[in-house]
């Protein structure tokens, strides 16, 4: 009888072992996970590429999730794989999203494995700041009364005509701005049922010089300088600026229309900013121009929007530019 019971127990145990039911009782508890050298604060210039080099233990080829806190929830921005080995280094590079707000919050999360416990690092605070570009071809170039284009008569070579309604002969833009304007027009049409009209895009140095001179003759230099840029100081020379309106509406009235208000609220989603907003005359040197859109790229436009920043002068920290240098007055 005893022998039969022993044999029965061995048979049951064999089945349980084969099915894995008893393995858990023999396993050790998962090893605790550690992440060493994760910095909890960084301040970096947009465009900088830097990497947190952390050490993960145990590593063993597991995954790590880089997460950003967005509107109260953690969003995984990238998934990384740790090298094999019990303890291994891991280079963690933030995705471009860190440049889209003045301050962002990040963490590294390692899900549990069969042999290692899950772990989450402390939260990292990242402060981003932008610097103006000097290259006239850069979407981040700052052009104002104190920062002329270099050279003054610079002109882009890669101009295209965007697939939007146009008015007048200055209907060319740089490809990045043209494509963004097409997306903005499509979004505006979907939201409001109305279409944008491009009134003025790229304007060459010679035309801008003649245009400003005409305004000076009609209004005097001091007043003309409040609403017209001198040649070499005009964003229109970059091919990144677009004066827009709605069909049948003078562009100077665009800001009073429902489409104009929609564009003011949503242009940033497509990489544009309203370059000369109401109340910023002392910073930009120009009257408000709700029709004047400037393409700066989606990250910088988002940076201004989320930071409550109204002008590029403030975003770049260059200070106000209300007048031309004494040598140009």
Describe the structure.
The strands form three sheets. Strands 2, 4, 5, 7, 8 and 9 form a six-stranded mixed sheet that branches. The protein starts with a helix and ends in a 13-residue tail after the last helix. Mean pLDDT is 92; it is low at 1-26. The protein contains nine helices and 14 strands. It folds into two domains: 34-129, Immunoglobulin-like (Sandwich), CATH 2.60.40; 165-328, Muramoyl-pentapeptide Carboxypeptidase, domain 2 (2-Layer Sandwich). The protein is α+β, with helices and mostly antiparallel strands and 329 residues long. It has helices at 2-19, 23-26, 175-192, 205-219, 221-224, 258-266, 281-284, 298-307, 312-316; strands spanning 34-36, 41-45, 52-57, 63-70, 73-81, 88-92, 103-110, 119-120, 124-129, 165-166, 196-200, 241-246, 272-276, 289-295.
Secondary structure elements and their pairing?
Layout lengths: L1 H18 L3 H4 L7 E3 L4 E5 L6 E6 L5 E8 L2 E9 L6 E5 L10 E8 L8 E2 L3 E6 L35 E2 L8 H18 L3 E5 L4 H15 L1 H4 L16 E6 L11 H9 L5 E5 L4 H4 L4 E7 L2 H10 L4 H5 L13
Parallel strand pairs: 2-9, 10-11
Antiparallel strand pairs: 1-3, 3-6, 4-5, 4-7, 7-8, 7-9, 11-12, 12-14, 13-14
């Amino acid at each position: 009888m005893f022998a039969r019971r022993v044999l029965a127990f061995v048979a049951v145990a064999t089945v349980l072992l084969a099915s894995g039911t008893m393995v858990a009782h023999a396993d050790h508890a998962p090893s605790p996970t550690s992440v060493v050298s994760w910095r909890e604060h960084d301040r970096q210039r947009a465009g900088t590429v830097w990497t947190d080099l952390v050490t993960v233990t145990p590593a063993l080829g597991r995954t790590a999730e880089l997460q950003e806190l967005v509107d109260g929830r953690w969003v995984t921005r990238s998934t990384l794989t740790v090298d094999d080995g019990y303890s291994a280094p891991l280079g963690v590079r933030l995705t471009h999203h860190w440049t889209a707000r003045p301050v962002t919050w990040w963490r590294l999360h390692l899900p549990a494995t069969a042999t290692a416990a899950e772990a989450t690092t402390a939260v990292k605070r990242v402060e981003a700041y932008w610097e103006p570009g000097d290259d006239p071809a850069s979407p981040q170039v700052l052009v104002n009364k104190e920062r002329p284009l270099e050279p003054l008569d610079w002109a882009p070579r890669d101009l295209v005509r965007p697939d939007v309604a146009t008015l007048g002969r200055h209907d060319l833009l740089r490809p990045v701005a043209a494509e963004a304007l097409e997306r903005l027009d499509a979004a505006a049409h979907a939201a409001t049922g109305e279409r944008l009209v491009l009134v003025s895009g790229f304007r060459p140095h010679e035309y801008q010089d003649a245009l400003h001179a005409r305004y000076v003759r009609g209004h005097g230099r001091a007043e003309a300088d409040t609403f017209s840029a001198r040649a070499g100081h005009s964003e229109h020379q970059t091919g990144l600026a677009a004066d827009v309106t709605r069909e049948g509406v003078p562009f100077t009235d665009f800001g009073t229309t429902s489409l104009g208000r929609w564009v003011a609220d949503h242009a940033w989603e497509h990489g544009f900013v309203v370059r000369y907003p109401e109340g910023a005359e002392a910073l930009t040197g120009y009257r408000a121009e709700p029709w004047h859109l400037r393409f700066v790229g989606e990250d910088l436009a988002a940076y201004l929007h989320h930071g409550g920043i109204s002008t590029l002068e403030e975003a770049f920290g260059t200070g106000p530019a209300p007048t031309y240098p004494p040598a140009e007055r």
